[in-house]
Amino acid sequence: MSEDRLTHLDATGAAVMVDVGDKDVTVRFAKAEALVVMQPETLELIRQGNLKKGDVLATARVAGIMAAKRASELIPLCHPLMLEKVALEFDFEPALPGIRLRSEVRLSGKTGVEMEALTAVTVGALTIYDMAKAVDRTMSMTAVRVVQKGGGRSGDWTA
């Protein structure tokens, strides 16, 4: 394999984990987001903390952080990483209506953290759905995407 071409396939076409052994250690980060669209009444229940299952956003934050730390166990060929920062924040968006989840993941390492950032917002969104599904079966999770990344050979990028 050429040093300039990172791939999940070996010379025979078999799936392998990318060899990052020769890459430099740099500070790398990724930011991702997702939307959970819901009924206005559901959004208000979550905002007021009035769901019977407890504090939805606190639970979703912990679930997303824990999931990011375990991304390599969930996604085949994803490198296990020693993450230095995982943060998950939420914005109420009445115009949707819904909640925008935003994650930031950071480390000093040889590979990026996009998958960890995406995993954080995805599991956070699933947790919101799980905790509110009894009052709103119409919820949907959408627009999961990386919005920014930095560090490494490919440099910085913003959506």
TrEMBL record:
Protein name per the record? Cyclic pyranopterin monophosphate synthase
Q: What pathway does this protein act in?
A: Cofactor biosynthesis; molybdopterin biosynthesis
- Known SUPFAM superfamilies for this protein? Molybdenum cofactor biosynthesis protein C, MoaC (SSF55040)
Tell me the enzyme class: lyase
Which EC number(s) does the record attach to this protein? Answer: 4.6.1.17
For the biological process aspect of GO, one term held by this record is: Mo-molybdopterin cofactor biosynthetic process
Organism, scientific name: Aureimonas jatrophae
Task: Say which domain of life the source belongs to.
Answer: Bacteria
The family database entries (PANTHER family) matched by this protein are listed as:
MOLYBDOPTERIN COFACTOR SYNTHESIS PROTEIN A
Q: Which InterPro entries has this protein been placed in?
A: MoaC, MoaC_bact/euk, MoaC_sf, MoCo_biosynth_MoaA/MoaC, Mopterin_CF_biosynth-C_dom
**What region holds the Molybdopterin cofactor biosynthesis C (MoaC) domain?**
17-152
- Write out the entry's keywords from A to Z: Lyase, Molybdenum cofactor biosynthesis
